[in-house]
Design a protein that fits this description.
alpha+beta, Helix Hairpins, Heat Shock Protein 90, two-stranded antiparallel ribbon, 17 helices, 9 strands, 9% strand
């Protein structure tokens, strides 16, 4: 019977227990998550892998060693399936690697069957005094080729996508890569280089056992939201590992008392050094975090300053182009009044002048209100408190058409309104909804010189959809991109209708969103009309 060192048995038992516990821990945190499920499959396959390998190195007959070793290699084949799928789902690449995923799944299952039921991977076993050596067949090239390919692929995908991640996800990837690097390095040395150089798998235990590093780092990255910086973890692991080795040397490898005392002093000095090393790393990380925090605050301040500059420029633009016109008109006509020119005018002309003053003040009031509303909405605030109640969208449209009918008739434009007989009411603020549709329908009239406007209401799922389609100037692709932005107007729109502020559509979008709805625009291009669709939820 082959004598197996006790340390190997202890390692096997500990890794089996740890792997099983990690599988249960990660799965219980979020049972519905694909990432957690795949990790648990990896950990369970490691349990079988290490268990079968343990029976391989403890068996005393050629037949039993061959049996357990085939099972161990079969378990490893299964392990590589979730090992591949884990980063695919972690990086949300499942659609991009659809065909490769099918190949890996088929290849892993095929390799599992080949490893267990044929001699293509392991051909024979040779028992020696130090342990059993496996004799590999040509199928082992495929086995190790798949292992190398998947390891390189996983590392490549994680590194390639690393810089696209947020800070927190970068830390998670760092944990994955550290655990993966330790496991791949140990496997490369003890499961590939040593067997090739020494023609023996005597030290393969170290490569197999190192998988626990990958599992532990990965589990911690999945479960914990607040992660320790990887520098602290690596420094602590380094100090702990050296301390364990020094302690082991003192207790088991040194028999002379004076040498034990000397090594104990060295251990104490090393622990002090390790303490200050970890503390310095912590201080460095804190300084980096403070610097990142200050940088973030500076970036926010710069963004806010840019917003203020944009607001200032927008205000100057609207003041010079929109407010100046009605103010100039009011000032000119009132100066005529003060000079007594009104007394010399016929009554009809005087009334016309008074009407023009009123319209100019009304326009000035509308522009001011639009600017105030737009500024409030842009800052994340709301308009006045909404008074939500059951309202009829059909009635709102009918009232709007009645208000604007004179303008349509004056410009020889038609306006058609179609809707089903039975339509449910919606929850909304009647005043704001009236303002939205007054703005949209009025815009359709202003930017249409021939034809008219068709309005339709229909029910789609849990929404009422109001479609406002005109036969006017249309919207270009370039203008469509900035149509819903504040103070934004297309070049042709500015030429077609000079007095627009570029705020109406912006406000409409914001108010519709406050009603849990949405608005979209469609146009085939120049002079091919524009269609606005407003979606408002029934409940």
């Amino acid at each position: 019977m082959i004598e197996i060192p006790l340390i190997y048995k202890i390692f096997s038992f500990l890794i089996i227990i740890i792997s099983f516990w990690l599988a249960f821990w990660v799965y219980s945190v979020n049972r519905k998550s694909k990432i957690n499920q795949l990790f648990s499959l990896m950990a369970i396959s490691v349990v079988f892998w290490i268990t079968f390998y343990h029976f391989t190195i403890t068996s005393s007959t050629t037949q039993s060693v061959l049996f357990w070793s085939k099972l161990a290699y079969g378990a490893v084949s299964i392990f590589y399936i979730p090992f591949y799928f884990f980063p695919i789902y972690f990086l949300h690449l499942e659609k991009k690697f659809r065909y490769l995923s099918k190949i890996i799944l088929f290849g892993g299952i095929s390799l599992f069957l080949i490893s267990i039921f044929t001699n293509l991977v392991i051909k024979d076993v040779v028992l020696k005094q130090a342990g059993a050596d496996l004799i590999f067949n040509k199928g082992s090239i495929v086995f190790y080729g798949m292992a190398i390919f998947l390891s390189i692929l996983v590392v490549f995908l994680l590194v390639r996508n690393y810089f696209k991640f947020s800070f927190t996800k970068k830390i998670k990837v760092q944990y994955l890569l550290i655990g993966l690097f330790i496991w791949i390095l140990m496997n490369f040395i003890f499961n590939m280089i040593f067997p090739l150089l020494r023609d023996s798998v005597q030290y393969a235990e170290f490569g197999n056992y190192s998988v626990v590093f990958f599992l532990a780092f990965t589990a911690y990255a999945i479960v914990k939201k607040e992660l320790f910086d990887i520098k602290i973890v690596l420094t602590s692991l380094f100090v702990t590992l050296i301390a364990i080795l020094l302690s082991f040397d003192i207790l088991f490898l040194t028999s002379d008392f004076l040498h034990q005392v000397l090594k104990l002093l060295i251990l104490a000095a090393f622990l002090c050094f390790g303490y200050f090393l970890i503390k310095s790393v912590l201080n460095e990380i804190e300084r980096i975090k403070e610097l990142e925090h200050l940088t973030l605050k500076l970036e926010k301040a710069n963004a806010r300053l840019k917003d203020l500059i944009d607001i200032k420029e927008e205000f100057l633009h609207i003041t010079s182009h929109q407010l100046r016109t009605p103010l100039t008109a009011i000032r000119g006509m009132i100066s005529m009044w003060c000079a007594g020119d009104f007394k010399k005018m016929p009554k009809k002309d005087r009334n016309e002048m008074m009407k023009r003053i009123y319209l100019s003040t009304e326009r000035l009031n509308n522009i001011t209100n639009d600017m105030i509303d737009a500024m409030e909405l842009e800052g994340g605030g709301q308009l006045e408190q909404h008074n939500f109640k059951q309202v009829s969208l059909v009635k709102i449209i009918q009232d709007t058409i009645e208000t604007l009918k004179t303008n349509f008739d004056k410009n020889n434009l038609y306006i058609n309104f179609k809707y089903p007989k039975k339509l449910p009411e919606i929850q909304g603020d009647e005043n704001y909804l009236s303002q939205i549709f007054l703005n949209l329908i009025d815009n359709a009239q202003k930017y249409t010189s021939k034809g008219g406007v068709d309005i339709n209401i229909k029910k789609e799922n849990n929404f009422l959809v109001c479609e406002i389609a005109d036969t006017g100037m249309g919207v270009s692709k370039e203008d469509k991109k900035c149509l819903f932005k504040k103070f934004s107007r297309g070049k042709r729109a500015e030429q077609f209708y000079i007095s627009g502020t570029g705020l109406g559509i912006f406000i409409a979008k914001k108010v519709i969103e406050e009603h849990n709805g949405k608005i979209s625009v469609f146009s085939e291009g120049k002079n091919k009309g524009t269609t606005f669709k407003v979606y408002l939820p029934i409940r």
